Amino acid sequence: MMKKTLALGIIIAFMALTPVPAFATGSGGYENASFSAKQLALGGTGTATPDEAAAISYNPAGIADLPGVQVQADANFISLMTFKDNDQTGSTRSSGTLALVPTGYVTVNPGKMFCDKLALGVGMDSPFGLMNKYNSNDPAVHYTGWRNELKMYAIKPTIAYKVTDKISVGGGPVYYRIDDFGSIQGYPNSLIVGGLPDGQMRANMSGNRWGWQLGTLLKLTPKHRLGYYVRGPVVVKARGQVKVEGASTLWGPSDFETGVHTKVNLPMNMTWAYAFQPTEKTHYEADFTWTHWSVHKRLRVPADPAPGVWNNTILDGVGNSSGSDKDWRDGYGLQLGASHKLTKNLTLRGGSWFYWTPIPKDHFTPAVPDANHLALSMGAGYNINKYLVLDLCYYNSFYFRRRINNSIAENPSLSNSSVDGTYTTYSQGFTISLTLKWDDLFPRVGGKVDEGPSIEMPKVA
Fold first, then answer.
1. Residue 357 lies in a domain
2. In terms of residue numbers, what domain contains 238?
3. Per residue in 287-297, pLDDT tens?
4. How far apart are CA 341 and CA 283, in angstroms?
5. Domain count of the chain?
6. What pTM does this model have?
7. Which of 160, 191, 223, 430 has its CA 20 to 30 A from that of 217?
8. Domain for residue 354, yes or no?
9. Is pLDDT of 397 > 90?
10. Which letter does DSSP use for residue 7 in this model?
11. Rounded to an integer, what distance in angstroms lies between the CA atom of residue 186 and that of residue 177?
């Protein structure tokens, strides 16, 4: 009893250290698939071996095999830095801010009460996000946004059912809440009278919407598993305020604010996975993922009427300029992972993933500095005791260099308004997860201990 109480106390303390408002950085577009240390250490795989509470976010069918009560808390620390080089307009880089992305999951399997077939769960994470900050004087970001944010979280009530010993399904609704979507950029007073110094505009919007997710797990044999996951599309209608400081008037600079709104696309995603487990201790998995980013055609940010005809003209031009054209393509990713149980308590993991960016060069902006990128990850899991498991992961993402020459933000009346240049992005992350497991909390059918879809499968004759 003392061990259980101590383990629960550690979990609660750990979760208290990870605040709910999430800051995330994108892996493809502005998607953030950072759910747990185990999942990331395995190269982002897991759809065919969803053997932890965090499976709620990448294949909820897997929680049907998790016995008793599982409580999992994760802290993802992500840093992303972008460098822009241009001999004519100058060079700059983003600040490389460290972002904390906390996640948490709870699953309950009542055991004998539902014949070991039904499990319930709830998860909270941040599947999308963005945070970067540049030097405001650089022309590439001055009119496109030198500080950009997408802070959001998702709540995922989940139910999973074991149809047969080989087939499980799971899913449920997803509540998306955008706390802050916006940017800070220059306010071009020179569009009124040439030579006037720029002001500053800050837009902040929020909104919420319900979506859904579904997963299936097929255990072909003890050595082979297939997994499938789909996340439904969502369009969040976000609304807020735009605050303008230093707007030009006949009487000098002035400040004002007005309403602003937009639609944020959170696209559909599908993942197909295959896992191969040649021995009881070794496991391999390959996942292929598709994200329907091509729905992100434009990003219009219309503003409510503001004081002054010129202010309305500028706000309309900024919110509906050529920079709002996105014309993104669908995104694809390939993920590979492997694990080996070195000792009874220690498991080593490694993996890699490659994402093809959905953002074409002719619609690239520094606000979302995405590119094709390759990542390498490694990690370990350690059973501290019967009830508490610690997982760690570290990864590096290497983004391909992009040479950009497009007309976004370019205006003959605005000097140095070009985003052209060579962009190089680099990111790294560290994740720590703690899982409290009360496997024996509920009586099981026949008193069995369910081996589940873990990395310890029964021996094959």
1. yes
2. 2-447
3. 999 999 999 88
4. 9
5. 1
6. 0.90
7. 430
8. yes
9. yes
10. H
11. 28
